[in-house]
Specification:
The longest helix is centred in the middle third of the chain and has 16 residues. This protein has an eight-stranded parallel barrel, surrounded by six helices. The mean pLDDT is about 95. The chain is α/β, with parallel strands linked by helices. The chain contains eleven helices and eight strands. It has one domain: Aldolase class I (TIM Barrel, Alpha-Beta Barrel). β1, α1 and β2 form a beta-alpha-beta unit. α7 packs parallel to α8. The chain binds phosphoenolpyruvate. Phosphoenolpyruvate binds next to β8. Phosphoenolpyruvate (PEP) binds next to β8.
């Protein structure tokens, strides 16, 4: 049986003081059982959040990772550097990076592989734009994004990966895909993987992302192919984030 996972993406919406406060509140509020919960601070706060998380079961993630392991790549952070600070996860292919920083299916695939090579679990974000949904090509879009990574890194690499289905029109907009809309795409993604490797398809966690809140988490969680959430806005409030986490516990 798959365990549910809740990942918080703090984006660039936090400073040193608020990051310390937030992580303190999450640690204090988390039930003591083994937690499948991850926070992804901005790079510069990773060392101190990493320290705070020592001795807890909260995982640490990065919001991105470089396409190469070392070299003349000014401003980039390699996966091996993140590993030095006990990062267990890295988001790759977030729509904000695809839209604003020219990430392509190819560079996302490179980032995915870099993370894996450094023993970091990539959280591969895929999802359609509003116009693509309206044109009825949602499945084609997610298949293209996913197949690009499968072709580059191989299906076996998904043994140690997480997928986040994030319809772009639902990110930071307050619009959420209905639980049924999300389930339909999650099921499609799982079937696509099953066509290549049944065991991986059954095991892989597919998270939903896009304005997840305590009010809609329960309905999403009830869907058979939704195994957790990637949360932006509501991960910046410990109370909301922990409520979402609790909704996703089986
Ligand atoms: C995200 O950043 O991946 C995200 C889903 O953001 P929000 O929850 O704010 O829509």
């Amino acid at each position: 049986m798959r365990r549910n996972l809740v990942v918080g993406n703090w984006k660039m919406k936090i400073n040193q003081q608020s990051a310390q406060k937030l992580i303190g509140e999450i640690i204090a509020g988390l039930p003591s059982e083994d937690a499948d919960i991850v926070v992804c601070p901005p790079y510069v706060y990773i060392p101190e959040v990493s320290q705070r998380l020592e001795g807890t079961t909260i995982g640490l993630g990065a919001q991105n990772v470089a396409t190469h392991s070392e070299g003349a790549y000014t401003g980039e952070i390699a996966a091996v550097m993140l590993k030095d600070f006990s990062c267990k996860y890295a988001i790759v292919g977030h729509s904000e990076r695809r839209a604003n920083y020219a990430d392509t299916d190819e560079t996302v695939a490179q980032r995915f592989k870099q993370a894996l090579d450094a023993d970091i679990i990539p959280v591969l974000a895929i999802g359609e734009l509003l116009e693509e949904r309206e044109q009825g090509v949602t499945f084609d879009v997610v298949a293209k994004q996913l197949n690009a990574v499968i072709d580059f890194a191989g299906i076996d690499s998904f043994q140690n990966a997480v997928i986040a289905y994030e319809p772009v029109w639902a990110i930071g907009t307050g619009l959420t895909a209905s639980a049924e809309q999300a389930q339909e795409v999650h099921q499609y993604i799982r079937q696509l993987l099953a066509g290549k490797n049944q065991q991986i398809a059954e095991k892989i966690q597919i998270l939903y992302g896009g304005s997840v809140k305590p009010q809609n988490a329960q309905a999403l969680f009830a869907m058979p192919d939704i195994d957790g959430a990637l949360v932006g806005g509501d991960s910046l409030n410990a109370d909301s984030f922990l409520k979402i986490y609790s909704s996703f516990q089986k």
